[in-house]
Fold Two-component system response regulator.
Amino acid sequence: MIKIAMIEDDLELADVLTQYLKQFNMEVTNYEEPFLALSSLRINKYDLIILDLTLPGMDGLDVCKAIVKDFNIPIIISSARSDITDKVIALQLGADDYLPKPYDPRELEIRIKTILRRFNHSNVQEETNNKTFILDSDKREITKNGTYIKLTAGEFEVLSLFIKREGFIISREDIFENSDILNQDYESTGSLAVLINRIRHKIEDNSKEPQYLHTIRGMGYKFTQ
């Protein structure tokens, strides 16, 4: 469910847009008062904001400035103000889009989806860039702080699985079920433990005191970074 905060004092329009967007799995909460909206943003989590510029008690451009200053939420300006200066200022302040009224709700729906797709991709990319280990499945490469780690096929498969399921405990059975290379010889001879140990030697500063790849006794392994 996409959660949207709308700051709009035209309650009839707000109701029309709320009902329309609902069919696209978008839940809209409208705030007629901008100060109430700003207070709510500190308590509730929203994926996007639809902001009118002509509001009671506070100009929409000031609301936009306050949101950009304190929150990382995409903003679509929805306004009947036709002055190009308002549009330029809004975009300069950090709004992501400007939709002049009147408009077809279908256009708003498309713009919401486009902005969220771009915004979410940007956030995922930023989060990935901050990781110590980066998995490139297409190139079948794993890097640590930008440095390529030389791995055997089996080591790559297992470490890839750990990176994809970071923070979750993975049992021995899970490793075999998700591997196209490992076979039952690993399980029967204890060679899986040897393979895990080889991986630790390649990724840990001290393999005897692992920082990333942990053994969870009686359950399996957990990878964190």
Observations:
- The chain has two domains: 2-129, 133-223.
- The CA atoms of residues 134 and 146 lie 8 Å apart.
- The longest helix spans residues 105-129.
